[in-house]
Amino acid sequence: xxxxxxxxxxxxxxxxxxxxxxxxxxxxxxxxxxxxxxxxxxxxxxxxxxxxxxxxxxxxxxxxxxxxxxxxxxxxxxxxxxxxxxxxxxxxxxxxxxxxxxxxxxxxxxxxxxxxxxxxxxxxxxxxxxxxxxxxxxxxxxxxxxxxxxxxxxxxxxxxxxxxxxxxxxxxxxxxxxxxxxxxxxxxxxxxxxxxxxxxxxxxxxxxxxxxxxxxxxxxxxxxxxxxxxxxxxxxxxxxxxxxxxxxxxxxxxxxxxxxxxxxxxxxxxxxxxxxxxxxxxxxxxxxxxxxxxxxxxxxxxxxxxxxxxxxxxxxxxxxxxxxxxxxxxxxxxxxxxxxxxxxxxxxx
Length: 349
Hints:
twelve-stranded mixed β-sheet, 12 strands, alpha/beta, 2 domains, Isopropylmalate Dehydrogenase, 349 residues, 34% helix
C-alpha cells in the first residue's frame, strides 16, 4: 500500500480483480457505481487512477499489490495500477475509439491474468472493451475470450479449449463459435467442436449446481434442417455429437429447432442450451435484458465473468450507465470461485 495509508485487517490473499475496460466507455463508471452500492466487497479494481476519478470515485486507495485490498479504509475504492498504462488516459475524449485506450484495457487484462495464474487472485471480472480500439492498439485478438485463452496458455502448450456462455436468471447459453464472420463460423463447425462444447457446458453446469445438468443442443438450420431439406449439418455432425455425448452418460438432447429451444429452456425444460453460432445464442439472452446478463468464459484455468453489454460509447460520461450487469457478473464470479456466501457490503474492510 502507498505510504500514508492506515493499515486495517489482514490482506485479502485472493481478491476478485475487476478490470476497468475501455477508458472511453462506461466501464469505469459502472465500476464506481457498483462500488457505491456495496457490490464490490472483496474486489480490487485494476485500472488508471485518473480515469476512475473522472468516473466519480471520490476516495481511491492505490495499492502496491492486489492482496493489500483488505487494508483499505472504509469508503475507499481499492485500486491496483499495473505498470505500462499509457499516460494521459483521462484527458482523452469519452465515447471515441482510441488505440491508447485499447492498449490500456489490454494491459489491465494481461496484468490481472498474471495475478490469477500466480494464485494471488480468485478470478477476474472484466468491464467492456472495444474491439476497434484493441485493433488500433495492435492487440492481435478480436475480444476478451481469445485474449484470455492466449494468456492462459503456457509457452509451447496447446491453448485450452474455451467457450463463451451468456447467462441470466432465466437462460444459460453456451456458444460453439463466437467472433467469426457467419460464413467462417459455419465452416468452423464439426463433430469435435460440437461434442467438446457439450462437454464443457456439462462441466460448468455441474459446478454451478445443476447436477446432472440437462443440456439442449440447438440446430444450425431452420427447423434443425427438417431432415436434410434445409441443410445437412444436423445429420452429418450435430446429431452424431449429441449421440456420442449421450453414450458417455451426459443428459443431452437435440438438435432442436433454434427458434423454439430457448423458450423451452426458459420454461425450465433444460439447464443449458448449446448454440452453434454467436447470434443464435446471444440474441435470446440479450432480449431478456442486458441488465442482468453475464458473460462467462468456460474452459479457462481460472474464473472470468463480464457484463453482458459493450462499452456504450453513446452514453459514456453522461451518468446514465446501469451497473446491474456488472454486479451480476461479480456475484457469478464469487459463486464460481466457491464464495457464494460472500454478501455485498460497503466497501472491503
